[in-house]
From TrEMBL:
Pfam families named in the record: EVE
PANTHER family listed in its UniProt record: THYMOCYTE NUCLEAR PROTEIN 1 (PTHR14087:SF7)
Domain EVE: residue ranges: 6-153
Source species: Lysobacter yangpyeongensis
InterPro entries: 5hmC_binding, EVE_domain, PUA-like_sf, THYN1-like_EVE
The protein's name in its UniProt record: EVE domain-containing protein
Entry coiled-coil feature ranges: none
Length: 155
DNA sequence: GCCAACGTTGGC
DNA sequence: GCCAACGTTGGC
């Protein structure tokens, strides 16, 4: 018995890892999330869940593509790697702190759905939508089916 | 358990 | 590059 497909939005800085990078590699482990709320969302992901791929910290922040969850959650290997920027000395193999999922490319959007445009639909998206919440920096966040539909209708 | 200091995120 | 907002750390 599998639960109904769910939806997420995941942020990435295009300088570090862009939608084109994901298209090139096909599937990528979503390493480096070091925020408990974001981690907990990844822990609840299931294979096949829909992902809105979002470019942050760039000229035109916004949704640029669609991906999907391609694995169940497992420990982020970079937490054990002393040479990694994401190394966490408090994490052990026995008790990992950080989990991730693999994300696989589905398609690029015909155009970027800019944050500025998304904000104009803030009322329809609802107050609980973390992307447009004042001050929110969450890099992995849930999207309802209605929000998914609305956002993609802007494409 | 409080909270000041610090580091990070990410829009602008 | 700036800086507001936020999360984490660590002294007490």
């Amino acid at each position: 018995m599998t639960a109904r497909r769910r939806y997420w939005l995941m942020k990435s800085e295009p300088d570090a890892f862009s939608i084109d990078d994901l298209q090139r590699v096909g599937t990528e482990p979503w390493t480096g999330v070091r925020n408990y709320q974001a981690r907990n969302f990844m822990r609840s992901m299931q294979v096949g869940d829909g992902v809105l791929f979002y470019h942050s910290n760039c000229d035109v922040p916004g949704i640029v593509g669609i991906a999907k969850v391609a694995s169940t959650p497992y420990p982020d290997p970079t937490q054990f790697d002393r040479k990694s920027d994401y190394y966490d000395p408090k994490a052990t193999q026995e008790q990992p702190r950080w989990d991730l999922v693999d994300v696989s490319f589905e398609r690029k959007l015909a155009r970027t759905i800019a944050l500025e445009e998304i904000r104009r639909h803030a009322d329809e998206l609802g107050e609980g939508f973390a992307l447009t919440q004042r001050g929110s920096r969450l890099s992995v966040l849930p999207v309802t089916a209605a929000q998914w539909k609305l956002l993609l209708s802007l494409e």
